[in-house]
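Table S5 (text form). Sequence records supplied for joint modeling of the two-component complex.
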Amino acid sequence: MADNISTKEIIKPENLVYKRSSVMTDNTMHYCPGCGHGTAHQVLAEVIEEMGIQQDTIGIAPVGCSVLMYNYLDIDMQEAAHGRAPALATAIKRLMPEKFVFTYQGDGDLAAIGTAETIHSCNRGENILIIFINNGIYGMTGGQMAPTTIEGMKSSTSPYGRDVKLMGNPLKMTDIVATLPGTYYVTRQSVHKPGNVRKTKKAIRKAFEYQKLNKGTCFIEIVSNCPSGWKMTPVESNKWMEENMFPFYPLGDFKVPEE
Amino acid sequence: MEKELRLMKGNEAIAEAAIRAGTDAYFGYPITPQSEVLEYLTLEKPHERTGMVVLQAESEVAAINMVYGGAGCGKKVMTSSSSPGVSLKQEGISYIAGAELPCLVVNVVRGGPGLGTIQPSQSDYFQATKGGGHGDYKLIVLAPSSVQEMADFVELAFDLAFKYRNPAMILSDGAIGQMMEKVWLKPQKERSKELPGWATTGKTPDRERNIITSLDLDPNKQEQFNIKLQKKYREMQEKEVRYETFQCEDAEYLLVAYGTSSRVSQKAIQLAREEGIKVGLLRPITLFPFPSKEINELANQVKGILSVEMSAGQMVEDVRLAVNGKVPVDHFGRMGGIVPTAEEVVENLKTKIIGG
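The corresponding structure-token record, covering 615 residues in total, follows.
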């Protein structure tokens, strides 16, 4: 039957399920096949587009795989030094309180070198959104152990698997920031399945709505995969993530405002 | 706020001048001997006076990155610290220079290395004038020698920083930060409502998105960017040199000194002239760009030059480069938080230059 339908017949408005957001640029992404960054960028762009806040949004890119994020989102952005995005966001939001300000950071950036900036901006209750991509590895530098690498997980600096006695324990930053008085909405999501993508998008939308109401820091962790760093196919990496990452980093809300 | 004469500490004068200059934000972290800047600003409630943002950051590192963020929005932002804290800021300063952002960093220098002392020193000259962090970059460096200049250089530093889209530094020391003098404060300036076209203020449909970054993975482009930076620094060298001379007209010997050392040197000149030694002073006000040409010209007139610094001899290297072997150049300094006496300066002028 499929042989009888031409491409022209398929590409019709009524068949449209997903499209590139107008807040995304036409630049080709540098991310590896199967990586979650592209999807996370897309849902963020969709929220900005749907809320009509492209003119009022300022983003902060981290150091890590998403360092070039500003090539893909058609908004004003600043590129921070490693781990310092929440410090930039603090200043930007305080100087331009009418703008929507977000940071987008990986686990090495946010949970290792930027721990102090993360904790203190959340504790001060800076009125910003922090999006935290946790794939348990330093992707850009070639797959080294991250603060979030789970016990037994192999990386190029834990080649026999993370030995917690020797290398310390993986850090659950989302659990920590949820305990701080300055955070308003804290959740952990993923973007590996359509249902999860929709939940993540909803979370980002909520966070921007709360920012509009000056509610304090919103923190969204997205547990993600790293097929190249994990040395797996995209499908294998998603399966491995579900079986190994989710038990340690369970998805769901940590702090939800009473509505 | 009208023009006003007050008796103030150097650190307080910087803080008050910052409010009056229409500064948009200050981000800092306590460290002796400059904590009065942050204390004064929190006491003065500048958010009520002008809407200025003042925030005590969790670290020097966070403070300088807050400066980066604010400067990226085209705002007039500053931080201040003392030597160990300024070392912590170096990464951020390099990024700010690399992203071509204007801002003001104040260093009220104390003795080092390491935790060092809390007494005045000039041992951060290399760090301030030769880059400080990684990469080929320069700061515009202003060296005040009085409480009045602490106040005046805030606005001057911001003007130069915005003119060249480059970080500027006020390189002071613990003596000038802590001492009290009378100071004329300028009338209150309004905070600027207009923001530069390159700033991240939200992408409007009429322009491309603005990106603040210091990254270019293409080495050819990165080299072109570096060439552009060097051109900017050459332009500063041509146009922005500031200095002051004191009793140089008939001088047979020359002292070169900035900040606290220049005040001691003025007294030394008086003592030397009482003994019939004709000596003058050149005080660099900009340490970068350095008054090399002016020192070179004075080297045609004098028989020898002594660089007086509270360091092991840092600026003396720039003096030697300027003089280029025309006359003998030597260094006299005290280290670790000791301020030299005028008598010591005269003694060293005699033994190292006149007798030599």
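Note: Chain A touches chain B at residues 54-58, 60-61, 67-68, 70, 73-81, 84, 87-92, 94-96, 99, 116-117, 119-120 (CB under 8 Å).
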